[in-house]
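Hi V.,

You were right to ask for the full record rather than a summary. Here it is.
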Amino acid sequence: MHVAVNAAEIAPMDTAAGVAMDAAGRADPARRWFIGTWLLLCALKLGLAAWLPLFVDEAFYWQEGQHLAWAYSDLPALTAWLARLGVALFGATPLGLRLPFLLIGALLPWLLVRMAARECDPASGWRAGLLFLLLPLGGTLGLLALPDVPLLLASLLCLDACLRALRRVDAVTAAELALGLVIGGLTHYRFAAVLLAGGLALLLLREGRRALRQPWLWAALVIGALAWLPLLLWNAQHAEAGLRFQLVERNPWTFDWQGLRLGALQSLLVTPPLLLALLLAAWRGLRDPRPAARCLALCGALLAGGFFLLGFFADRQRVSFHWPLPGHVALLPLVPAVLAGWARTWRRAAWAVLGLGQALALGYCLMAALPQGRAWAAAHGLYPANFSDWQALAREVRAQRAGLPPQTRLLAADFKLGAELGFALGDPDIPVLDHPLNRKHGRQAQLALWGLLAESPRALPRPWLLVASPEHAGFDGEAEYRRWLCAQLGGLPTAQVLQVDGGGKRFWLLAAADRAPLPACPAAPATAAGNPPAAADGRSQSMAGR
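Predicted structure:
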């Protein structure tokens, strides 16, 4: 989506009198831009959410929601609860699963507008909201059922409450802070960074230290702390599996210059002009005489800067480019004043680049939502592997099972396949092999807790049908994957190969329907047998087991 914004029409003036005049007389154009963009984005996200295949993490959160608990191995409970609520109220479809997240995502820009209008002026509020909508990671938030949605809600509620507390701490402020703290504590380990940044900001401000002496604020903090109890109890009962994964196993804690690549990606997703405006907003905000401006600058700079530095030492194998988003959003109320000082041409360029960035983000989602788009992406090396055509796989599994004995047990080679097939088939209890992916994403302990980890697949009673994908991460190549799979099963049955999305993804369906010994595993790599023959999209063909 490309929103051509007239920067001269919506940019605030520099002087205090000019800002007041702009707020009184020129807020309507900014308001119209915001509401129009918000309505358009809501409609586009609603359509995309109905067609976009489930992201693999979304499917696993659905699976967690079908096994309701107070905490899980990878996350606290709220994301799974929202997923369960979505399918219970709106149906077991991708749109039904995502609707609670879409509704929260639609609410977030309004919260930002209200906060920015109160702390700056109404016109700046609408402009800050419009910046959020055009921010690629902001405007698309809620399209996927991911923890980032309630996490940003919690961050905004806590930030708004802290800004109120700088002036006065009362029951309403404490209730808003408590609500934000509870939502954050039930959403993600990463909310600890928000707590740290907000706490430091209050301690560094005279008005913040005064607020911390008020009983109402401490009552809210106590309530917020209680929200972490389920997660802490889960870890205490399961050998700190979740904490070890989040703090130790996924992070090398050694310096690596690849952090620059991550920082560059974060910059591109913010768009370079807006990134420059954010940096200037933080710098000016830290020197602003208004406590609220300094609080916004401190929170935003500590969060965004902290996650940038963390990229040099922490996880570089999994997606983390979205981590600084709460920091960027905290700085947005200060950005309209920065843009007001730019020349008209540069203001227009900043809005245009931001609109183009959002258009590219939505265009990528549209490409991933359409079969033709995924096939095109596969042909050009841009295949969105986590948005594969899982429904085509589910149809093939149903067809295969129809020709097998009724008691045939369905197995998945890794948690991704187990969760995606589970959602498509309505079965949250598909056993999964001990795949490296399970540990890489912190899901191994949870699968074992559910009794779904097939630790001794050789002893599995037959008949069974196993679904695997040689392209899922964890192995150097297909030959190594075949040897691992053969060792897991004690042999490799003849497989049917299903190819989807123009060859973007291949799946193997291996059936063991009798008591006959499985074909023996190869003693050495078979270099000539690297790739099974290709199959037409949506169809399967036989591959002899080796």
